[in-house]
Amino acid sequence: MAARLNPLDLYDVRSLLSDEERMVQDSVARFTDEKVLPIIGDCFDQGRFPHELIPEIAGLGLLGATIPEAYGGAGMNGVCYGLICQELERGDSGLRSFASVQSSLCMYPIFAYGSEEQKQRYLPKMAAGEIIGCFGLTEPHGGSDPANMKTVAKKDGDDWVLNGAKMWITNGNLAHIAIVWAQTDDGIRGFIVPTDTKGFTAQEVHKKMSLRASVTSALFLDDVRVPGDALLPSVKGLKGPLGCLTQARYGITWGPIGAAQACLKEALDYTAERMLFGRSLSANQAIQLKLADMARRITAAQLISLQLGRLKDAGALQPTQVSLAKWNNVRMAIDIARECRDVLGGAGITTEHAAIRHALNLESVITYEGTETVHQLVVGRELTGINAF
């Protein structure tokens, strides 16, 4: 008799991974099981980011995982980075967001667009978790239209003076530096801004019902003066921040797979133990249909992200492919989290269980770094050649 399949990996996607990729996944999975899951429900309840985990996250090489070792990174491939995101988000979207912002939105632009001096100065300490970054692109009025940017940077002698505001900034009140994008006379440019600079203020956003175990902030820049070498020299225009977002969105395609797996595992355990009308809840056809549909959708998402990772590592990845994966995989996860909440009945509304926490977190994930509608329109533009934005 054939052995039963892994309910969280029906197509044995793990067998398609290299030894290094499996090792990375296993190490992050152990970290999530041993250090994240025991505390994350309470962190969510308290609206507290678990700062105490940062040293171990850094020690595992999870910050700037794909940055070359010469700059303090781990030199991993894209699939390894995806698996890191998957296992961290199996714990909580807020933890994956922290690592994603640090790696893809802060370390990546310094590596890709920065000077050699900037790389040497910041990247090793960021990989070690000694310098935390945030990414200042989104503005209060801008949302899905980043070109409608009001933050400005004016040249004043050898310095730059920045004025403006940014909103919904992950890590804002944790950060030592901010990667701030601003309009200049030469188009949109990026700047490395120390957060202790005079005129820079970060104000934490409270009363959140989503990403409660994450730090979300508004940034205000009032005549913030930085030296000329704060400018990222190797990029201008929207392709700079959009290039960063492509890196981060790639990781987001993997993260929700972990959230969905956590919810399915919880639902499988709960329905096996819950007795109603003389039999386990899992013996009901209605429940099995729900669980089977969850497994189908997780399997499709796993294969999409793995192929996306292989394309990335081959240098063939296209932004439209990332949009399709983010749209599909986050929609998959939020639907599964909501369905699992329902399967758990009344128990599903408490943070003693994971489903409601993941469902609430995914309300943010489906919105940030490109709403679902934006990614649908990106795919539509690719299919038709017509920009409908």
From TrEMBL:
Gene Ontology MF term list: fatty-acyl-CoA binding; flavin adenine dinucleotide binding; glutaryl-CoA dehydrogenase activity
Classification via SUPFAM superfamilies: Acyl-CoA dehydrogenase C-terminal domain-like, Acyl-CoA dehydrogenase NM domain-like
Catalytic activity field: glutaryl-CoA + oxidized [electron-transfer flavoprotein] + 2 H(+) = (2E)-butenoyl-CoA + reduced [electron-transfer flavoprotein] + CO2
Any single Pfam family the record assigns to this protein: Acyl-CoA_dh_N
Keywords: FAD, Flavoprotein, Oxidoreductase, Transit peptide
Domain Acyl-CoA oxidase/dehydrogenase middle: 134-224
Enzyme class: oxidoreductase
Required cofactor(s): FAD
GO biological process, one term: fatty acid beta-oxidation using acyl-CoA dehydrogenase
Entry EC no(s): 1.3.8.6
Pathway: Amino-acid metabolism; tryptophan metabolism; Amino-acid metabolism; lysine degradation
Domain Acyl-CoA dehydrogenase/oxidase N-terminal: 18-130
Ranges for domain Acyl-CoA dehydrogenase/oxidase C-terminal: 237-383
Family: Belongs to the acyl-CoA dehydrogenase family.
Protein's name according to its UniProt entry: glutaryl-CoA dehydrogenase (ETF)
Organism of derivation: Oleiagrimonas soli
